[in-house]
Design a protein that fits this description.
It is a single chain. By secondary structure, the chain is α/β, with parallel strands linked by helices. It has one domain (2-283): Rossmann fold (3-Layer(aba) Sandwich). The protein has helices at 18-31, 67-77, 89-92, 97-106, 151-157, 171-183, 205-211, 225-233, 253-256, 277-283; strands at 40-43, 58-61, 83-88, 111-116, 119-120, 126-127, 162-167, 188-193, 212-214, 239-246. The strands form two sheets. The protein has an eight-stranded mixed β-sheet, sandwiched between helices. It has a two-stranded antiparallel sheet with strand order 5-6. Helix 1 (18-31) packs across helix 6 (171-183). The longest helix has 14 residues, at 18-31. The radius of gyration is 20 Å and the shape is globular.
């Protein structure tokens, strides 16, 4: 993890789940043998995005809800480059939901880590599409009038090839999930249930400790789509964590591109300086 260390101080609230996720990411990258210059880390706007300058590496800090298309473009331009995109539940399931839909649908070969704290933490605790029913938030003192978007059911409806879930207090599990996600052939959706001690007083660190269980302890079959969807959606009594579903037999988006088939070079390697003087003279 030393190579990812940064002199910039973290400014998250005490007890914020971002500390755990930040640590797990650095561990996963280090244990995967990836140096900072060998990976692209893409951050959305939000509390998690404030970590974009708290570690070394090639980092991009984009617009709210728009991190997936940038990450996908970076990966398609250089398929040899591991790409991880980070986004919050507010951005990803509101104005950025269209990008999430097509990221999963297209099976872009990137890792997407959802910082799921069920609110807009950076803008002082507004309710998001994933805020639980009946919870009072700054802009919803009586609770949200809409129904909470069923995020996992929604994700599974898009026929994903990799779905995992963890919570921000389990650094070892998050590390292993991210390492597996980096090796996945297509779009890896990693849902991290995140404690937000300042604004979210219902999904706390203690709550997750009491309710989360690791599916590997119960012999879960990650190839069983129906079972994976069922345990992902049902969080009424306990919350399943770990790799819930994965399949590697489907070619990812890049592999399906007919013009790229048979190519031994990447698009970035094919970029060259071209003299356009002759073309410009024709236009004059």
């Amino acid at each position: 993890m030393q190579s990812y260390s940064c002199v910039n101080k973290c400014t998250w609230c005490d007890g914020c789940g971002d500390y755990g996720i930040w640590t797990a990411v650095k561990r996963a990258l280090t244990e995967s043998g990836l140096a900072p210059w060998q990976v692209c880390l893409c951050f959305d706007v939000g509390c998690h995005g404030n970590g974009s300058d708290k570690l070394q590496g090639y980092r991009f800090h984009g617009l709210h809800g728009r991190v997936i298309p940038f990450a996908a473009g970076a990966k398609l331009a250089n398929p040899k480059l591991p790409v991880i995109a980070f986004g919050g539940d507010g951005a990803s399931f509101s104005e950025g939901i269209g990008h999430l839909v097509h990221g999963i649908r297209s099976d872009y070969p990137i890792v997407f880590v959802l910082h799921n704290n069920a609110n807009y933490g950076l803008t002082l605790g507004q309710a998001s599409a994933l805020t639980w029913q009946g919870q009072k938030m700054n802009t919803a003192p009586n609770g949200i009038p809409e129904h909470t978007l069923p995020s996992m059911d929604f994700v599974f409806s898009l026929e994903p090839t990799f779905v995992a879930r963890s919570f921000s207090g389990d650094i070892p599990q998050m590390t292993e999930i991210m390492k597996a996600a980096l090796k996945h052939r297509g779009f890896a959706f990693v849902d991290i249930l995140q404690a937000c001690p300042t604004w979210n007083h219902f999904a706390t660190h203690e709550y997750f400790l009491e309710h989360c269980y690791d599916v590997t302890t119960e012999g879960h079959d990650t190839s069983d789509f129906v079972k994976a969807r069922a345990i992902a959606v049902d969080t009424s009594k306990r919350i399943s964590t770990g790799i819930l579903y994965q399949r590697e037999d489907i070619p990812d988006f890049y592999e399906k591109l007919v013009p790229r088939q048979g190519k031994t070079t990447t698009p970035v390697e094919e970029v060259a300086i071209t003299d356009v003087t002759a073309y410009m003279k024709k236009l004059l």
